[in-house]
Amino acid sequence: xxxxxxxxxxxxxxxxxxxxxxxxxxxxxxxxxxxxxxxxxxxxxxxxxxxxxxxxxxxxxxxxxxxxxxx
Length: 71
Description:
By secondary structure, the chain is mainly beta. 11% of the residues lie in helices and 41% in strands. The protein has a three-stranded mixed β-sheet. A two-stranded antiparallel ribbon has the order 2-3. The longest helix has 8 residues, at 16-23. The chain is globular, with a radius of gyration of 12 Å. The mean pLDDT is 85.
């Protein structure tokens, strides 16, 4: 599976579909935030998946990733 890594982003976000079908790690709904888009709109996030492992160039990295229904 491939992903787009935006090193300038303030939040790591994945879609609800990816979380449900691929990640399947517990979602912490108490760690919710909202996400502002380029049009200055604001959308709610469902929660956070903590310490999610992924590989990048052979290295194993960990990130906190927020889940959004609208992406």
